[in-house]
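ugh ok fine here u go
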Amino acid sequence: MSAKMETALKQVRGLGSAREGARHWWHERVSALASLILSGWFIVSLLRLPAYDRGTIVEWLGSPLAAVPMALLVITTFWHLKMGVIVVIEDYVHEEGSKLFWVTLVNFLAILGAGLALFALFKIAVTGSAA
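structure:
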């Protein structure tokens, strides 16, 4: 007979069930702050443009000073969106099979959305044309 010499408190100490709770919380906060700062940059940049026609926007995004922060905005926004939706799924979907399906789908859609946005941005920045 093997007797455990640990108290109940010793058994439950740690970082949570997945041992990643603090890191996930921190990533959510950092991505939210980055998205907020970059969204502020985006709004101010748009307000400073002389016109809002297609040519002006394409010319503006052709500059590295606009394309790089725009790419960072796309990445941080999709990353933050993915993390937030996954938290909701983990909190409210209790069946493991369904949870895995929805988390996988959200990850796939976030990567697809960010990839499409980055491709369009890259195409505008390099070729000067969205079409």
